[in-house]
Amino acid sequence: MATAAPPAPPATPQLHGVQPLRAGEGNSYLWRKLHSLTGIVPIGAFLVEHIISNFETLNGPLAYAQQVKFLNSLPLVRILEWGLIFIPLAFHALYGLFIAVRGRSNVNVYPWAGNWMYLSQRVTGVIAFLYIIQHVWRQRFAGVSLPENPGAAFHKVQVELSNPWMLAIYVVAMIATSWHFAYGIWLFAAKWGITPGEKARKKFGYVCGVVGTALCLMGLASIWAVVYKYPNAPENVLPEQPAGVVLPASQTSSPISDPSFVQK
Amino acid sequence: MAQSTIKVEIKRQSSPGAAAVTEKFEIPYRPGMNITSLLGEIALNPVDVAGKATTPVTYDSNCLEEICGSCAMLINGKARMACSALVDKLEQPITLAPLSKFPVVRDLAVDRSVLFENLKKVKAWVPIDGTYDLGPGPKQAPQIQEQRYPLSNCISCTICMEVCPQFNDATGFVGAATIAQTKLFNMDPSGSVLKEERLRALAGDGGIQECGFAQNCVQACPKQLPLTEAISDMGRDVFVQQVKDLFAR
Amino acid sequence: MAATPRIIVVGGGLAGLSAVIKIAEAGGKVDLFSIVPVKRSHSVCAQGGINAAKNLKGEGDDVLKHFDDTIYGGDFLANQTPVKQMTAQGPAIIDLLDRMGVPFNRTPEGLLDFRRFGGTLYHRTAFAGATTGQQLLYALDEQVRRFEAEGKVTKYEGWEFLSAVLDSKGVCRGISAMDLRSMELRTFPADAIIVCTGGNGAIFGKSTNSVVCTGSAQSALYQQGAYYANGEFIQVHPTAIPGEDKLRLMSESARGEGGRVWVPKDKNDKRNPKSIPEGDRWYFLEEWYPKYGNLVPRDVATRAIFKVVYEHGMGIDGQPMVYLDLTHIDRETLNRKLEGILEIYEKFVGDDPRDTPMKIFPGMHYTMGGLWVDFNQQTNIPGVFAAGEADYSIHGANRLGANSLLSCIYGGFVAGPEAMKYAKSLPAPEGDGGHVAELKRQQEFNKLLLNNPGTENPFKIWRELGETMTKHATIIRYNAGLDEADAKIVELLERYRNVNLSDKSQWANTSFAFTRQLWNMLQLGRVIVQGARLRDESRGAHYKPDFPDRNDEKFLKTTKASFKDEAPAFELEEVDIQYIKPRPRRYDATA
Hints:
The complex is a heterotrimer.
Chain A: H1 28-40, H2 43-54, H3 61-72, H4 77-102, H5 113-141, H6 153-161, H7 164-191, H8 198-229, H9 259-263
Chain B: E1 5-12, E2 21-28, H1 35-44, E3 72-75, E4 78-81, E5 94-97, E6 104-106, E7 109-110, H2 113-121, H3 142-152, H4 159-162, H5 176-187, H6 195-202, H7 216-220, H8 227-248
Parallel strand pairs in B: 1-5
Antiparallel strand pairs in B: 1-2, 3-4, 3-5, 6-7
Helix pairs in contact in B: 3-5, 5-6, 5-8, 6-8
Chain C: E1 6-10, H1 14-25, E2 29-34, E3 50-51, H2 63-73, H3 80-99, E4 114-116, E5 123-126, H4 132-149, E6 153-157, E7 159-166, E8 172-179, E9 185-189, E10 192-195, H5 216-223, E11 228-229, E12 234-242, E13 247-249, H6 253-256, E14 260-264, E15 281-282, H7 284-288, H8 298-311, E16 322-325, H9 331-349, E17 358-367, E18 370-371, E19 384-386, H10 404-424, H11 435-451, H12 458-472, H13 479-496, H14 510-534, H15 552-555, E20 557-564, E21 567-574, H16 587-590
Parallel strand pairs in C: 1-2, 1-10, 2-6, 10-19
Antiparallel strand pairs in C: 3-5, 4-5, 7-8, 8-9, 11-18, 11-20, 12-13, 12-17, 14-15, 14-16, 16-17, 20-21
């Protein structure tokens, strides 16, 4: 009945498992912390600014244009844009992808809340990343240059969102980004030891939930304003002044400052 | 309740390099059986459901009362201790498999020595001067003891590592157990003399930064250790230490 | 002779780790062998605490009172010199453990807290929650890990000790061991070895002991010429939770809080215990011992439960179990006072003891006997030392609660330095010191086992051994039963020769390793049974209804068994009683 005795293995088979901690070695701590930090500042801060700025769309194309103009009038704006937005964002996104691909999500086996959030942070991150690539390309670098033509901002976005597919993408991305940011703050607080303890994390979770929801609703409201509240916005509400014209250009009101138009 | 047999499917592997196969068994039911007694029944009569003779299943076990930490395995897919897994509370067929994140030695036995290596890396001990009579240790407020005691209950079962999405070959993450032990020894009045070294160790590759805070560790821990709290606390301490080192070293 | 003595410690529980620490600290090289990773050793299971007369409660406790309690509790069978030394060192050992970072419970001032335990009137037991053994083991494990990281200790975890290597003069020169993964046999040289391999619960089939507590190492040494002393003294705890795979302890405090022990009056009563009316229940402890009821001393309760089950045949459903009932106590009280232990029951049995009476039965718990050692922890084989539960030296006929952890650490702390001292004056061996011969002997045993064309399943032999031992050699012993048990073991030894391994592979073959241990368990079983047969008296844990009294004239003696002609041979040795004169042991008068 017994199974035959197989020959003894020639040598002790090598066991390959997860390697032990490389105590005090490597730089991954620095990069990982930088990734975590950039998510809050400057990227998170910029996101809040961006959503608040976009919220101006609820006040109409002109208000929005003035907001865009204001931002572009900040000193050293191009340096700020690259140093505090594009470069940190690229780092955060690429390193985030690196983190995501090295995780082994197991919500199928352990369907616990925290585990779902772990997965959601990676999924929303990837969604946000893909969205932001096209968003930056199409809105910042392609087509009408908004820094030079802030008055064209509303129209440019309106045209973009006139495509129902694009509208859907913007809505999904808005939700994903707010989610990613809100849970990101929560994670930041938990992992940097700002909220140790179950109670503190739970309470802070509510705070993050409120922040995330508020940002998301503001963003969605802005989308609504662009698509539905002010349809058929003019191509440029702040047309470039003809060369040689000395201020004040004219006493006659331009079409955009016509209150009847704005209310429409 | 009146079942006559228990259906069990066991993922088996005769050696580290061998292919895994699943063997099915039907074991006579008795009330109050746990997984380790089920495996004992197979040893008593190593015959599979088709009547084919096989070998007793290799698995780690010792105390059988969930304190030695030996018998962790995947039971119906989930990592838990075999001794405290009662047959009456499990869906059948019961599937048994080795922990998935550790190299299989044979059948359900895996090599978990990485945890003990990690404990060396963070110097998880109190560096006493010697074992001769040096009088009592430092006074310790009961509040400190009440925080240390739960951490000291870690049985090294490695379930927190098994369930962690970040504990894998790619990250080489140290896992929650070691981080909790770091906190335990940093809190000890004498053990804290090595605090800075431990915190620096935890900032190495595979260190505390790899935690993704999925919190599976704290959910799965059979001894209910406050693991996420330990990770938070150590996260802060490691960061402070790194900043200090940046400017003071 | 050797500049740096090389010592082998077998067993990584409290005793073994204590010895390792002492040797490493003194500059010796240590190889530590353990079947399981040392952090998973059986010491981890101890719950209650560790005794030392620190007298931090203003009760006037002192080490001599601890000494007296231990000798009295052990029914005067323990040699008094080592017990006196152990109790004297108790306070220093506690201080050391405290310095190692053991999370002992604290008083509000931040000092060590002490609780009361059985067999004493003083608060003498330091404790870390309900897991003191675990905490102590971890503290020592951490110290050894530190020495390991410093290169002073080499661990061989997953290696099983098989035998001592003896030279032509019978002096120990090392050990033979088997890698439980590759099944490789090897001998390891050493100037001295210290055996700290714990108790032998597995001989009784199911016990409160861990899986590795087979007594195999002690038995192997006994078969190589070491004396095995007081083997017949086995402590049985009255309330254990019978399990399919083992017995788990249910603390005495359940009865302390009002738990009642009973069985149905009709042995065929199949009703749910809750629906059995008072009139149909037999509260036998309350009936037999009206004064103390359910709180009779441990050995009395143990014997009464045993009698009900085996002599009256009244166990629940014909099984060896009685009810321990807490359901008449309100949930809130239970949760406040007993939550921890009730959770254990709930976890492992699946029933809520607040709703359903617990099913309990006495369980084999501790091995008082063990390898005979002198006052320096050395066995009669030169170079072989022993410490902890594996030796016989401290507890006499019965162990007091919370003395085991202390005796382990004390034993290791003596054995380590003594082994160093011995090793330093050891002359070089002649020839190879017997290594080749021992390796060959072990290889032949393995070959024999692997090629045996028999039909016996080793696990079935083991089960029968356990049933026989539990029935005849635990709580109540009759000479006829002991003779029967010995005959049964002889039969099992015979059947063992016809054993068949269903697994003959040479990789992580646990049933093969187990079958090797089984031979040693059977041999040691005979020592226990025959030792009990010869001791016609009742003393401590050893109780014979036919000889109900202690007989100091004839049996105030240590039983020493040696392996002669394939069987145990016995001699008696005087007990060291130079400090405390034996007096009657009457807990019922003071309890």
